[in-house]
Amino acid sequence: MAVNTEKNSYTVIFAVVMVVIVGTLLAFFASSLSGKIKENERLEKQQNILYAMGVNENEDEGSVNFVSTDKVASEFDKYIKEQLVIEGDQITENDEAYLIDLKKQETAAKAGNTRKLPLFIGEKDGEKYYIIPMRGKGLWDAIWGFVALDDTMTVQGVFFDHKGETPGLGANIKQRYFMDDFKGESILDGTEYAGIAVAKGNNDPTNEIKDDNEVDALAGATITGDGLSAMIKESVNLYKSYLETIRTNK
């Protein structure tokens, strides 16, 4: 018996069947690839942390080249000496602190729970680095990154990334020339934790002044720059108690 393909019931049944088939296939692929996706996320976080402390494969002044995925795990173990979790007054070691989801911790804090703050202590060429993860809001969506400090609260390196900033404008926060401007800046203004502002009126386009808590803004990216400034300041304040112990003990 021939099927009447012009009936509404046929269209509905066909659509339902296709949705079920496509949904099943997507669920299968998502399940089968979940392990690989998590592994890639883990390696990317390790690459970003190492980049902030100057462990990378940059070859020229303009490149942003991470430690390759085939050796990033061993380099992470080599350079990151401690991973800490700060939870209120408690500080514990945790070898997977870098996997803590900052967005979930922010949500937990808003609900009245104690936020878990991961912090990484690295060593390179005899120097110690204190690496703070950060998360904030840009123009369109989330921005995030890492800032590496020495015991004088001077920035030794940063890494920034974004989810949906405008190409050629706000998206340039992950460009080498912008990130390099932060090196040598202090997060302190006297004894206050001021962070570092991305300032349009910086009057220091070559970024030679390192005691003004400012870097030059990106052209056409005022809101992204303001979000980045807020992210750094808020993140620094979250870690202020721990950072004070570093300053007092140095």
From TrEMBL:
Matches recorded under SMART domains: FMN_bind
Listed GO biological process terms: sodium ion transport
GO cellular component terms, semicolon-separated: plasma membrane
Subcellular location: Cell membrane
An MF annotation (GO) of this entry: oxidoreductase activity, acting on NAD(P)H, quinone or similar compound as acceptor
Bilayer topology annotation: Single-pass membrane protein
InterPro entries attached to this UniProt entry: FMN-bd, NqrC
Cofactor: FMN
Ranges that cross the membrane: 12-33
Main location: membrane
Start and end residues of each FMN-binding domain: 138-239
Reactions listed under catalytic activity: a ubiquinone + n Na(+)(in) + NADH + H(+) = a ubiquinol + n Na(+)(out) + NAD(+)
Keyword field: Cell inner membrane, Cell membrane, Flavoprotein, FMN, Ion transport, Membrane, NAD, Phosphoprotein, Sodium, Sodium transport, Translocase, Transmembrane, Transmembrane helix, Transport, Ubiquinone
Enzyme Commission identifier(s): 7.2.1.1
Residues with FMN phosphoryl threonine modification: T222
Function: NQR complex catalyzes the reduction of ubiquinone-1 to ubiquinol by two successive reactions, coupled with the transport of Na(+) ions from the cytoplasm to the periplasm. NqrA to NqrE are probably involved in the second step, the conversion of ubisemiquinone to ubiquinol.
The protein's assembly and partners: Composed of six subunits; NqrA, NqrB, NqrC, NqrD, NqrE and NqrF.
Family listed: Belongs to the NqrC family.
Record protein name field: Na(+)-translocating NADH-quinone reductase subunit C
Organism: Arenibacter aquaticus
